[in-house]
User: What shape does this take?
Amino acid sequence: MTPDPKASRAIARLMCDTTRDTLWSRYRDRVRQTRPRADLECRTGSGRATYHRYDHRYQRHLITYGVRMVMAKQAPDTAASWLSTREIRSRGYFGGEISVLNLLAHTCTHEFAHLLQQHAGKRYHGSVHNHHFYQILDQLNGDGLAEHTRSHLAGLARRQGLFLDDRAMTMPCQQQQAGQWQKGDQVRFGKGRAAREGEILKVNRRTCTVEGTGASRGLRFRVPFVMLESG
Assistant: This one.
């Protein structure tokens, strides 16, 4: 069943509230010891883009949660390609269990870890998800704050009648996904103005390397299996 965009936008707003109520409230005073005017703005975006940015001039952090990101993380096939899924599994966050609730709560913690990384001066051009970042993310999970974030988000959703499934997802097998494709296959990926077509050059562990054709000729892409369609 396709996730409801209206409900997904409401969930994204709850992620904003949760980030401020649990994460920012814990670290706000500590951040302001060195940057007294520091503040956090959270907002929802209409696409998949989910990110942290920092405005040096106004000492303002901005975290955006994309509505299409929320939608994508509610189904195994579309959740499989996200970094948050790999982090939960590989680093054992929330016991390594993938669920809608765990993915969205972890997204809050992940983006807030970028805020703390920026504050610490450990975010560099070309080196964002570095070992400094994962030290921070591990700490947020290890000290119980990530679990508190998860509980807070679940409570807000419950009070508003929004369903965040906490049952473990059955994720698609990457070997089976990879076996669907081979070099030379004609494929399509992306939607609307971002739609592309091309030919598979290489099948990787989680993605395919695609040589653009048609309007995308001359470009190369690394495309997650779940985004590919036969051309």
